[in-house]
Amino acid sequence: MKLLLTTIKSDCKSTDLELKSLYSVISDSPLDVQLKTFGRNDLYTDIFESIATAQYDIVYFQANSLNIRQLLRVADMVKKAIPSIAIIFGGLEVSFETRSFIQQNDCVDYVIRGEAESVLFNFLKSVLDYEFDFENIAGLAYREGDQVVVNPYDAPVEMESLPFPYEKFEAGKGTVYYESIRGTSDRTVYSQFLPNARVRALSLSRVCTELRYFLANDVDRVVFLDKWFNFNTERAYRIFEYIINNDNGITTFEFNIDGDELDEETIRLLAEAREGQIVFNLDIASTNAEVLAACGKGENIYRLMYNTTKLLQSGKVRTEIHVKAGLPLETEAMFARSFNKAYGMAEGMPLHIDSIFMSKGTALRSMAHKFGYIYAEYAPYEVIATGSMTSDELLRIRAVSRTVERYIGDGGFKKSIPRILNDTGIKPYDLFSRLTAYITRNDLSGKTRKKDHLARILFAFTAGLYEDMADPVKHEILKDVIYADLEEMVGEDAMKKFDRKGWDID
């Protein structure tokens, strides 16, 4: 019997690791198990042909909100070509509202709900043993005649029982994804998590052993998918300590961090790290107490702001700050204040504006009517408007978010933007709003993909600001600052090309 584990690449970081973990659990079975990931730009017809001609008996599709529609299109083609093939879907996207998902998609025979390793193992064992006792397999949903049966979720998987996924896959030199915990301590209303899924963690000894593998193989970047990684302060401290003490001079480690739980001892330890060795993603969401309360987050933002400031003062940990747009009760003015405070903390570090999605399984989706949400019917369920923000206001913020991402999302223009803000006295959100309007008004969106064009646009845009101040000297000084920022972002050859063309946008 031949089984394919597959997906289509997307921006969802966890999908690749989920497939590797599944393969590690079932690859030693009597089945011929293959794993294949298709590119996001692969044609549906090519993916269909690859699957349909390989004579699989079972195909398992790992789905997320970003690739579910593409996967269903492929699955429908495969099922029509080979009616006898068993089509299975798994992933959080299909772990909620499962019954309606199967009813709406005739090509789907089975769904693995929640953590898939033990559920898929039990399903395959039942098939191989010719028992077909699907009603006794927790976490499985299936068709029975004209009916759809949805079994309760399986018990949470114990992390120590799972094999190390990279035993069967070379880590390579690029980016690898890793999880040291299952479950999440993040219980905000917009977060997607399984009911009653307690937080489970790998032992310290196992984590350090597995990190040693990445270090020995000179992996460029290890991204921890855990949220929040520092749910246990002492455990997080010991892992940071191991990473710092065993630095290979190459590998960067990235973590999702709960800023409220950072303590003075951990911050002092992190000051010993190699610069760039550790990257933190900090989710501020909002700085408004009413909004934070509606989100299920702590209402006191000052502890987070204090911890973040202390962390940034160490200068060793690259800290990326995230604020969210479209939160319940938040107006555009409230969002602007949150952005300005976040910028004040993150000055010189990357800052991101993240959109809210009404994902299946989130409390916010069930409370959509309460907060006046209007959102897209199809995945990834973008928020169109809220009871506090019109669609025009949200679209305006999304446009600003693109400008923010281009200019400071990667930590670029780290001297230019602060200089402009200091010279003009403009608030950060207002500056990026004006810059966004300038780009739109002058039809320059197509020129924002390259750093040299961004530098030219920024200089041209600020001409009007400094003209209003009647201070052309400061604008000429700013030109030198922008030029210095550009030098740090691009190579010598690119700078020579920039010098030849000059500051003319056209």
Walk me through the topology:
Blueprint lengths: L1 E7 L5 H13 L5 E7 L5 H9 L5 E5 L5 H14 L4 E5 L7 H7 L5 E3 L4 H12 L11 E5 L2 E4 L24 E4 L2 E2 L17 E2 L2 H13 L4 E4 L8 H13 L6 E6 L6 H7 L7 E8 L3 H7 L6 H13 L3 E8 L6 H15 L4 E5 L7 H4 L7 E2 L7 E3 L5 H18 L7 H9 L3 H14 L9 H18 L3 H18 L2 H10 L5
Parallel strand pairs: 1-2, 1-3, 3-4, 4-5, 8-11, 11-12, 12-13, 13-14, 14-15
Antiparallel strand pairs: 5-6, 6-7, 9-10, 16-17
Helix pairs in contact: 1-5, 2-3, 6-7, 7-8, 8-10, 13-15, 14-17, 16-17
Characterise this structure.
By secondary structure, this protein is of the alpha/beta class. It folds into three domains: 2-150, Response regulator (Rossmann fold, 3-Layer(aba) Sandwich), CATH 3.40.50.2300; 170-355, tm_1862 like domain (pyruvate-formate lyase- activating enzyme); 412-506. The chain is 42% helix and 16% strand. The protein contains 18 helices and 17 strands. Strands 2-1-3-4-5-6-7 form a seven-stranded mixed beta sheet, sandwiched between helices. It has a six-stranded parallel beta sheet with strand order 8-11-12-13-14-15. Strands 9-10 form a two-stranded antiparallel sheet. Helix 7 packs parallel to helix 8, helix 8 (264-270) runs parallel beside helix 10 and helix 14 (416-424) packs antiparallel against helix 17 (472-489). The longest helix has 18 residues, at 391-408.
